[in-house]
Amino acid sequence: MPGAWPAEQVRAAEQQVLAGLPAGALMARAARAVAVEAVTMLGFSYGAKVLLLVGSGDNGGDALFAGAELARRGVRVRAVLAQPDRAHQAGLAALRAAGGRVVELAGAGAADLIVDGLVGIGARGRLRAPLLALIEHADSSHAPVLAVDLPSGVDPDTGVAEGPAITATVTVCMGALKPGLLVAEGRRRAGRIRLVPLGLAPSLPPATIWQLDEAEVATALRRPEPSDDKYTRGVVGIAAGSAAYPGAAQLCVGAARLAGVGAVRYAGHAAAEVVRRWPEVMATSTVSGAGRVQAWVVGPGLGSGPQARESVRLILATELPALVDADGLNLIANDPRLRALLVNRSAATVLSPHDREFERLFGPVGEDRIGAARRAAAELGVTVLLKGYATVVAAPAGYCYLNPTGVPALAT
């Protein structure tokens, strides 16, 4: 499960590594990785046309040195310098010595591949001229784009793009994953991410942000054993659905069955519809009559009436793990007594809001989704699963997991 580090920590690790290496060694590693990925994306080298968009920082140097290596392989490399007087001089000399050319944007012509080396992890906020014209050129081109470290215009920590930003086909991420590549707009802009470690691992602090992957999640699910019965495999209680929203109950029960639990007990107004769809489910109309349960899911389609509130109260008053969603969250947001029960729970508790539900409970999400989820988790002492295009899962202790497998359609 790969970790991700804020830009400040990555830059500090880079400085430690640089102190123990010959001058230019780290940039040479980065440039080599960019060149290799460029050839992979092109599918060939000799005669290919590559356009470098070059900024004034180390990312610009990486792009120039990568361009020099590509030129030595027979690639026709042209570079447009955003600020010619601030370009990386050693990289520029290497490009020219290898046969690459510096051109104006108007004379850049068509390219088989564009390399985005405009800004790196030190940039913040909306990009300004002369970068904007270069970004517009990249986005209007039909050529694939390779971003060096992160797409220019994307915040490395939050993934926010305050203005125009590069949309990359592939991002060669240097040294360590940045959270902004995994959430918000950054996730869409980054394209496929290729991580190049560069030897930073010993200099990085322990990660508190991780990207979830399928293999890691699969290890958390215990497989049934021959000695298991329905109680050792777990009994989940579902308090969801109502006369108006019976489908919510059916969906919750169906999901619980597919998750591999031993048995499902349903408590609510949609018992008839649930049993008709899932005849093996044990159903009752109230939480108090549900019987033996080892964990609860409460809220989807529950409504806002007195019985819905009582269901949430009874579940939060238990010492059983509970996941609260949808109407359950809205009821807590509107009732300080339910919120107090939530704060005082010793059992594992998960809240799974989308942005508007989060706002009712904690205030606006803002631009920093990871920071918002972490603050909410610490405030109530619960795990917060902030749903979205990339879901953020934050624990009270500050640990955070990012699930990048979502698609925009999940918003429905």
Question: What does this protein look like?
Answer:
- The protein has 412 residues and is an alpha/beta fold.
- Helices cover 35% and strands 18% of the residues.
- The protein has 14 helices and 18 strands.
- An eleven-stranded mixed β-sheet has the order 1-9-18-17-16-15-14-13-10-11-12, with helices on both faces.
- Helix 11 runs parallel beside helix 13.
- The longest helix has 18 residues.
- It starts with a strand and ends in a 9-residue tail after the last strand.
- The mean pLDDT is 93.
Taking pLDDT < 50 over at least 5 consecutive residues as the criterion, the unreliable ranges are none
Helix and strand content put the structural class at: alpha/beta
Strand order of the largest sheet: 1-9-18-17-16-15-14-13-10-11-12
Outline type: elongated
Give the N-terminus to C-terminus distance in angstroms.
Answer: 29 Å
> Which percent band covers the strand fraction?
15-25%
The value of Rg in angstroms is 26 Å
How many separate helices?
Answer: 14
> Quick check: average pLDDT?
93
Helical residue percent band? 25-40%
Overall strand count: 18
Biggest beta sheet summary? 11 strands, mixed
